[in-house]
Amino acid sequence: MRIAVSGTHRSGKSTLIEELSDLLPSYVTVDEPYHQLEEEGYAFATPPSVEDFEAQLARSIANLEDDARDVLFDRCPVDFIGYLLAHEDCDAFDVDAWLPRVRRALQKLDLIVLVGIERPDRIALSASEDEELRLAVDEKLKELLLDNPYALDVEVLEVEGALRARAKQVLEHLPDASR
Fold it and tell me: Start and end of every NadR/Ttd14 AAA domain (predicted)?
């Protein structure tokens, strides 16, 4: 199966990917586009600009073009649409121009695992974290993936609880042959 783990920053995505990688040793893990681009020398603005998120969106789409099976993706194109729609300069982002490419890319996924912010929040944040953006992106992702206003046509599993509980929810959702 091809599984993407989606969520706002500091929601537990990468930790869940690590846990799933241990539990599914035949799966390959694809790092999130931010880290891929950073390793290649891409210089992100602080805070990231619309162009920075569009670069990550393009990389996320490209990551899905490979047909390899049994892959865990840290993020998917919907993550970056969420960030772009929550960005202070969101008017500079044309979601309609990206949707055909995003829909085609998402067809290559079998499942998106949504890791949302829980109440109470399980993740401790530093004083420098942008809590307002984090909450706005979480809300956008839930809208995009659960309400599906753009007809993205992908299966979504929203997980909650402690790390082991989240991993168990994902494993229980997989066909036996995928484990």
Answer: 2-150
Starting at the earlier edge strand, list the strands of the sheet with 2-6. Answer: 28-30, 71-74, 2-6, 111-115, 156-159
Alpha-carbon distance 111 to 171, whole Å? Answer: 12
In whole angstroms, how far apart are CA 4 and each of 96, 116, 120, 155? 22, 14, 25, 11
CB atoms under 10 Å from CB of 40, counted, come to 8
Helix and strand counts by DSSP (H, E) for the chain: 7, 5
Q: Where are the domains of the chain?
A: 2-178
Q: Encode the chain (179 residues) as per-residue pLDDT tens digits.
A: 999 999 999 899 999 999 999 999 999 999 999 999 999 999 999 999 999 999 999 999 999 998 899 999 999 999 999 999 999 999 999 999 999 999 999 999 999 999 999 876 566 655 556 789 999 999 999 999 999 999 999 999 999 999 999 999 999 999 876 66
The CATH architecture annotation of domain 2-178 reads 3-Layer(aba) Sandwich (3.40)
Token pair 């891409």 is at which residue?
A: 42
